[in-house]
């Protein structure tokens, strides 16, 4: 399916942005000898910068992953002024009234000049300048293509939960043709704020963006009939794929699943019996299965892969010999899917 895995491609950088790390792949073909980096995630880097600020804070830039950033902002606003441009404020919440209720001042980008006495921190999911400077210092060329994976719930309509909205997109894809390429974006979506921010930042490059969970699925897929499980620090996703077509999917929160529940949900996915209501009602995001699938293999990836019970007959992913590169390989492959 991915005919250019071993062939020569334009020089590509793939950045898989997670909560703890950003995993970077720099290559013109996929093999074990390519440049690979596991670096602190942008949300950790930006959060550390904010912790060092003693005084009033101005947050500019784009919508990025929250987590550590949101937590440190909540702490900072207790004793200092915090001003955020709208795009940065959406890192905290897409509901800007909620952000204002925290005591944060939300401004337009044309008002930044009014806060020159504040310490400015730029928000971004892609530490592009820093990575490119490092590559240059190693005498490596600027990539021709850049792809990025971020976890994006989407901007839910009023009255709909983020969990429901995120999974509604996957259901639409499965009910359609189930094409993996429909999960890869080259233009702004108007639906996913972090993906749109990434594509805007990469507008001068040939670029793709997709959800990081989907990137890991694509990075592990070998063709044929497979179930692929990505056990992340936050989200747990399992997908059933048949000849390149997504036919089933569920997403939950890793911390909420024990051995029995994981086994039960994976078996129901395989048999086409999993339901959206049972996963959502259990605290997960949702589920949808178009048909049953007897997999040739079950492949597991993700930083919490240790939670997968031995009752499931699985093999560990090792794309280009490195399980940490599952998402980055999926991003690299996504250029083939456009």
Automatic annotation (TrEMBL):
Q: What name has this protein been given in UniProt?
A: Actin superfamily ATPase
Species annotation: Methanonatronarchaeum thermophilum
